[in-house]
Specification:
This protein has 6 helices and no strands. By secondary structure, the chain is mainly alpha-helical. α1 runs antiparallel to α6 and α5 runs antiparallel to α6.
Length: 192
């Protein structure tokens, strides 16, 4: 056959590499959000240290989303991906440019960020009830993140020592949910 191996068609490799390219940023984003959680669990870092690592993680996630959108500019892109990247960029920039950040400010930023991400999950679940088998997970995750965002925003000052652990659990839940949906759906987590 002229040196061409017909056992594996070339489109198989192309589609696999395209899937890896398209979903690589999602895996990167989930891994970046796991870094602050691992830091909290491993070193018992204070909120000041967590806020810096979280800010860097979401800004890097926004940059990964920007690269994804740059490389796939000629394709139809789910608007929730753009909304997620814009939220990461906005909250990351606010964390680093606020003149006098303190723990309470960081808790508000984190709780609004997770509340927003929960809203995206909930909207995706409610909008895709007949399109996906996993709509229940979107809805459950969305309600959980909305509730946790509200709880963290209204946390009592007497329990401030437990906030980093709660944040780490939320980040693991968020990243784990996204990775689970990514592996099960074999495409982006948001339904178009």
């Amino acid at each position: 056959m002229g040196g061409v191996d017909r056992k594996y068609p070339s489109y198989l490799f192309l589609s696999l590499s395209e899937k890896v390219m398209k979903l690589g940023y999602r895996i990167t984003r989930a891994a970046l959000l796991l870094i602050p959680a691992i830091l909290i669990f491993a070193t018992h870092t204070s909120l000041e240290g967590v806020s810096i690592v979280f800010g860097v993680s979401i800004l890097t996630g926004a940059f990964a989303t920007m690269l994804y959108l740059f490389f796939h500019f000629d394709e139809k892109v789910n608007t929730r991906i753009m909304m997620e990247g814009l939220a990461d960029a906005f909250f990351g920039i606010v964390l680093f440019t606020y003149p006098t950040p303190d723990n309470q400010f960081f808790l508000i930023i984190f709780s609004v960020w997770i509340f927003y991400m929960g809203t995206l999950q909930l909207v995706s679940g409610l909008g895709s009830m007949e399109d996906t088998d996993y709509f229940w997970l979107y809805i459950l995750a969305g309600i959980t993140f909305l509730a946790v965002g509200f709880v963290i925003m209204n946390y009592s000052p007497t329990f401030k020592e437990s906030v980093p652990s709660l944040m780490a659990i939320v980040l693991v839940l968020y990243s784990g949910t996204n990775l689970y949906l990514l592996m099960k759906r074999k495409m982006d987590i948001y339904v178009s």
